[in-house]
Task: inverse folding
């Protein structure tokens, strides 16, 4: 049996549900297809949801209704060695005022809720259904088929929102069949149960305030970093590795996560935490240079499927970019329906709106960041340099101090070499 819709969305993650909600609220007949038994069942991420300006317009009471954990008032970066750590923390008054800058969330709860909002707006949510083929007629995408089911689901336009490994974009011929491991990262996360009052005391928080901290120098030389985010009564703690570097190291994410949790300064933060869940996922880390074709005849590619993820090292922004691309994909489909044109040209408004938004502008601004981050010294020598400098500065033992600038040059020469220091400084200046 063939079912006919105005639009099909493949994947009920943040990109897909944002697209489905936008189109359903405009009165289009939308099929939102998800392989999980419920949206979010298999989805994981680090933990911080940032502002969603495009979705907030379509869904004005979004922040009052979404299932959120804590709002982030403190953000920190910690440089680590095996035995020491040096942290910088920003706790800004503006972070503690609405509209808040970011919230921790749980994907199974959040994704399910957002997809159900799309369904309430009129979209048909079809779960336990894995899309395996893209149906084409005269070179145009006109529908999809589902594993193990007879017949097709048809629509003049398909929105691919099926995540980083998007088979929909692949089958439509919009992305290459293989990935460059140099453009991919893998993240692992442990969810640790901890009472909310312990979290508040330990991290200097009150009520539902939250803390988000990133760590560098904790990956035994593998390119990558760690994160610790406070949920209401649990901690999300994990590591993100550059895939090619992890492979070359021969180390396993699980062992690296355990060593991280045992590092003395981290062990104090997670003390008493009971492991609730362990999860892992791939991240498109290549930035602007990784973006595939975004539009074809009868198809649009959104979110991680389009590599719209900003992993510059300061923040990991993925959900906000995915949701934004979903909303503008939905708006482009609404216009295409008005004009009756679903060709690549008729859908090109999507690319135009993305290009004009912070999504593409940020990815372009930080286009060189992924290359800059492929520098092993960032993950070992620089954290060691910073920790040893700070340790020296704060250690008072009755011996005369050296001049700080001279000391820095001496330590930098020993740890990284002055030529490398200059080259790395220039590369960071160009990338950031
Ligand atoms: C370790 C880690 C930490 C991260 N931390 C953050 C963070 O703190 N903040 C942030 O903003 N971002 C973070 N991200 C990135 C963020 O998770 C992604 O950018 C975001 O989830 C992309 O949303 P999406 O909707 O495009 O794809 P996804 O969230 O991957 O959703 C895709 C959906 O499609 C479904 N699907 C896949 N294939 C099919 C198919 N064939 N048929 C039907 N359904 C299908 C999947 O089940 C899923 O529901 C992190 C990612 C990782 C891995």
Result:
């Amino acid at each position: 049996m063939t079912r006919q819709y105005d639009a099909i969305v493949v994947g009920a993650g943040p990109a897909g549900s944002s697209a489905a909600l936008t189109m359903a609220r405009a009165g289009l007949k939308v099929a939102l297809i998800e392989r999980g038994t419920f949206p979010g069942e298999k989805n994981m991420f680090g933990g911080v949801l940032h502002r969603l300006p495009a979705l907030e317009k379509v869904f004005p009471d979004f922040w009052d209704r979404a299932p959120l954990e804590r709002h982030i008032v403190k953000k920190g970066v910690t440089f680590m060695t095996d035995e020491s750590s040096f942290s910088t923390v920003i706790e800004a008054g503006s972070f503690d005022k609405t509209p808040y800058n970011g919230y921790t969330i749980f994907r199974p709860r959040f994704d399910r809720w957002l997809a159900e909002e799309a369904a309430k707006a009129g979209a048909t949510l079809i779960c336990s259904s894995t899309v395996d083929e893209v149906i084409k007629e005269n070179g145009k995408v006109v529908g999809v088929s589902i594993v193990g089911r007879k017949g097709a689901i048809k629509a003049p336009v398909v929105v691919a929102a099926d995540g980083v490994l998007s088979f929909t974009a692949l089958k439509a011929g919009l992305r290459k069949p293989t990935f460059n491991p140099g453009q991919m990262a893998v993240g692992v996360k442990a969810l640790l149960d901890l009472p909310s009052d312990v979290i508040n005391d330990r991290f200097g928080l009150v009520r539902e305030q939250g803390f988000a901290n990133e760590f560098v120098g904790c990956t035994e030389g593998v390119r990558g970093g760690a994160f610790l985010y406070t949920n209401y009564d649990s901690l999300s703690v994990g590591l993100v590795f550059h895939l090619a570097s992890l492979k070359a190291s021969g180390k396993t994410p699980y062992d690296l996560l355990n060593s991280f949790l045992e590092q003395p300064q981290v062990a104090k933060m997670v003390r008493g935490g009971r492991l609730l869940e362990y999860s892992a996922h791939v991240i498109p880390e290549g930035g602007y240079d990784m973006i595939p074709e975004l539009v074809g005849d009868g198809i649009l590619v959104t979110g991680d499927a389009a590599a719209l993820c900003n992993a510059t090292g300061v923040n990991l922004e993925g959900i906000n970019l995915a949701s934004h691309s979903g909303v503008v994909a939905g708006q482009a489909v609404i216009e295409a329906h008005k004009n009756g044109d679903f060709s690549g040209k008729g859908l090109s408004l999507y690319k135009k709106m993305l290009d004009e938004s912070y999504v593409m502008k940020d990815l372009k601004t930080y286009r060189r960041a992924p290359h800059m981050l492929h520098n092993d010294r960032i993950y070992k020598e620089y954290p060691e340099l910073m920790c040893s400098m700070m340790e020296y500065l704060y250690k008072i033992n009755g011996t005369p101090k050296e001049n700080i600038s001279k000391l820095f040059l001496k330590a930098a020469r020993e740890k990284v070499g002055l030529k490398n220091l200059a080259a790395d400084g220039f590369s960071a200046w160009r990338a950031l």
